[in-house]
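Structure in, sequence out. Go:
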């Protein structure tokens, strides 16, 4: 669903912009890493489709950037809306060159034996089915454009277990497996597919999961760099993976975690 919002269709053309004139879809664009990525891709010269479930949030993102950004209401668990986001890109700009699939949910905390079917369905629907659906619709359009890139957002929990949410960890492990397999399938078509795995990042989602300042401080101290990531730092990694600067990189995972997975300090 293309939201009826004012937009500027003139992409920036400052020197050094690695994605000038490219058309990029960002899912989960209403807040956090996704919102930061919309701004970073636009700053890199791209036309960006900011896709998310909450129109009010998307309006705020578009208004704050003021570049070549189009808001598209899209729930990744609804295949018609995913297909519609790709169709909007092709209809508005003539093609799709790249995607950053950032939509995700954490699910509920708790022991595995106390979990329920509703939580399983919700987490798997967004984190795995939603990503699969995005790839299924985005890749043919990128192939039709002559090739391009896809970056999928996993998590540090894709490399470690998560004692509070086994389902979240399991689905983020699946993001890497799905991305590697798709990278192998579509390399010959000129499509590079990679993953960015953020550690604890200062977003609304993280603050809702860990609401106390003490817990957030503990998360920050867990990293050798002794702080949380900013959404912009993760978004910059995604932009690099989507740009020609990473032209010989596919099927890989860039971990942006402040050193957490490097080992114990």
């Amino acid at each position: 669903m293309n939201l009826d919002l004012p937009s500027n269709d003139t992409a920036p053309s400052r020197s050094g912009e690695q994605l000038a004139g490219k058309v990029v879809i960002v899912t989960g664009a209403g807040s956090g890493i996704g919102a930061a990525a919309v701004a970073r891709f636009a700053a890199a010269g791209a036309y960006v489709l900011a896709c998310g479930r909450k129109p009010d949030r998307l309006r705020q993102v578009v208004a704050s950037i003021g570049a070549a950004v189009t808001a598209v209401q899209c729930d990744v668990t609804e295949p018609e809306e995913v297909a519609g986001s790709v169709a909007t890109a092709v209809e508005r700009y003539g093609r799709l060159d790249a995607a950053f699939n950032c939509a995700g949910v954490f699910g509920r905390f708790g022991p595995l034996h106390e979990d329920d079917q509703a939580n399983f369905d919700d987490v798997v629907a967004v984190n795995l089915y939603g990503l699969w659906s995005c790839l299924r619709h985005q890749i043919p359009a990128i192939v039709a454009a002559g090739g391009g890139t896809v970056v999928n957002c996993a998590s540090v929990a894709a490399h470690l277990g998560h004692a509070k949410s086994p389902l979240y960890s399991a689905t983020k492990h699946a993001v890497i497996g799905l991305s590697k397999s798709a990278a192998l399938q579509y390399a010959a078509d000129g499509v590079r597919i990679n993953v960015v795995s953020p550690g604890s990042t200062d977003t609304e989602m993280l603050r809702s999961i860990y609401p106390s300042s003490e817990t957030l401080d503990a998360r920050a101290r867990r990293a050798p760099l002794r702080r949380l990531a900013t959404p912009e730092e993760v978004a910059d990694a995604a932009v690099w993976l989507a740009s020609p600067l990473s032209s010989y990189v596919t099927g890989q995972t860039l971990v942006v975690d402040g050193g957490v997975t490097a080992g114990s300090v």
